[in-house]
């Protein structure tokens, strides 16, 4: 594109989103600096899943996915709360064949290290620089200069706020989140497969599945099991009503909780999984806040990415994927093929491409919190007796997530901005004529 120029880009936050966008932007030819507030860029927490449309970008960027030691998911299994019998199963057997990429379950620390290598290591483009102990305090939106708590100033052509759900950059852009603590609480625990097997418990790692107990009864109680580290570690997210334990002001740094606290909300739970929880280690609360969608995610030459721009409930397992897609969108918009040197225009299109899609997933994630039939995948299993959704035409489908073509979406929106013709048969990145299982046909 004529007018393309190399930008000097600053990224605030070195989490999954910050690392991903650093990869996309260095590959697009830009000079990238990541500023992280803590003294190391790492990750807390355990499992994090990455569906085809996230995995797709990891491959496009040449990331060494094996380094993340993923479990490739074969099934989504929803089990009865009391008996553990499967009630709704979504088979991912033909998933790679259909969508071109697998559904990975990573361990967070491994995933972060994998992205870190691709952002800072050898490879296409200029390796990004990571500056730790840099906490963003303010940004001058006229000169595009960041002020850090340590007194350092840094001016950039473009600034990306990838600083998570508590984003400082978001406040600087004048966005005041409407938010409330979620009605459910979440405790996370780790179980070693080896220990479970030694004690004669069920070996869930054999299923290679993301497994859910509950979710059909319109209750907040739900157990989510994700196998990671090649199946050696079982990561459990355990949800219950907030009245039974309020952790909304806790953070990861908080102390571990006693196992009794984890078991207490679940007297009627299937004993097979209950026995797993009983040997749980490193039990920690994960605070959950529901944010309404923000009105915008950019101003001038500053934009938001990942949880900073659209934090969501974990119930569609899409938070990390959405951060990766944001990164991909910026990488495309600022690539030699599309970028004409106008940063504000590129960010305006970024917002038009990303905000509607992320907002849709955000809303679907909030719904799936109390009704698992709203979760992508299970939303397809309409024939089970307890299937019920708020509005069948609005359920989020795998087709919509994976048949989406971001290049087309970008081209359509750029063409409108540049008063150019767009003639391909796509609307917002979805092919005209595509029939979604929720009964919607694109273009009708
Ligand atoms: C219970 C639970 C389960 C989840 N499971 C999944 C899942 O299975 N799949 C999935 O896709 N997603 C999942 N998610 C969501 C996922 O964790 C997030 O969406 C994703 O990690 C967001 O990445 P991020 O980089 O935007 O933010 P973060 O990971 O929060 O990173 C922000 C970074 O910015 C730094 N920072 C913050 N403030 C500043 C500042 N002022 N200056 C400089 N640096 C700063 C922080 O230290 C941090 O390193 C889950 C979330 C929850 C709550
Ligand atoms: C276990 O879980 C905690 C959070 O509960 C996480 O921070 C930790 O890294 C996990 N440990 C392992 C070995 O994965
Ligand atoms: C990140 O990558 C750099 C360069 O490859 C390496 O020196 C550093 O140790 C890595 N950090 C982490 C936390 O993985
Ligand atoms: C945004 C995006 O990457 N969409 C892709 C999702 O996966 C399908 C199938 O691999 C691709 O065709 C889309 O382009």
Notable traits:
binds 2-acetamido-2-deoxy-beta-D-glucopyranose, 444 residues, 12 helices, 7-stranded mixed sheet, binds flavin-adenine dinucleotide, alpha+beta, 23% strand, globular, 6-stranded mixed sheet
The unique ligands bound to this protein are: flavin-adenine dinucleotide, 2-acetamido-2-deoxy-beta-D-glucopyranose
The largest β sheet comes out as: 7 strands, mixed
| SSE class | alpha+beta
Secondary structure tally: strands? 23
N- and C-termini, Cα separation:
34 Å
Count of helical segments? 12
Protein name: FAD-binding domain-containing protein
InterPro entries: FAD-bd (IPR002938), FAD-dep_Monooxygenase_BioMet (IPR050493), FAD/NAD-bd_sf (IPR036188)
GO molecular function: FAD binding; monooxygenase activity
Transmembrane segments: 7-25
Description:
With 444 residues, the protein is an alpha+beta fold. 27% of the residues lie in helices and 23% in strands. The chain contains 12 helices and 23 strands. A 7-stranded mixed beta sheet has the order 6-5-15-16-17-14-18. A 6-stranded mixed beta sheet has the order 8-2-1-12-21-20. A 3-stranded antiparallel beta sheet has the order 3-7-4. It starts with 7 loop residues before the first strand and ends in a 13-residue tail after the last strand. It binds flavin-adenine dinucleotide and 2-acetamido-2-deoxy-beta-D-glucopyranose (3 copies). One 2-acetamido-2-deoxy-beta-D-glucopyranose binds at residues 41-42, 113, 116-117, 120-121. This is FAD-binding domain-containing protein. Belongs to the paxM FAD-dependent monooxygenase family.
